[in-house]
Please model this.
Amino acid sequence: MRGRNEILADIRANKPKFAAAAPDVPNYDGDYPSDTAGLQARFIDVLEKMGGAWAEPEPGESLAATLRRVLADRLDANSIIASNVGEIKGNRPVRADDTPASLHDIDVAVLRARFGVAETGSVCFTEAELTVNAVAYLAQHLVVLLDPAAIETNLHRAYRRDDYKTARYTVFHTGPSATADIEGVLVRGAQGVRSLTVIPVR
Model:
């Protein structure tokens, strides 16, 4: 068998002499709402179809109180909450030098999304929001703060953002973890977070 370096050397030696310009790819979002409220409504619809939840704070309610209300049946006095946002105080800090395995006991991770995508109901994180990338996978429940003004129409628009020029790691989360067997029995939380709740922060 040929080695990796030999194969790569052949590829480099046989590159086209004249580089072709990249094609102009359309955004395919002509049928999406152009206003924030419309995009938010579309995002919520898809988010919920994917098993996620949208939690609008009640009048005068703090974000911490919203979290406690929407996760009331999943939290108790001993729950471990790791918060990477200033608006919600946790009881378990996440530090850059934490090993992924040390995050195994987190009940709730609270993160701020870089942006959302209406097409898929997804939220995007980079290493800046996560601190330790594994926190968004090892926590039992994920609570996400999202600015509705930062919802993109679709993934074509999302990939045009400058975030990909500055981030070393980028991930989309679309609802909680889920799997379905051959008989179509859907199980949520099978390989990752058991719930994903988005709280709007305007």
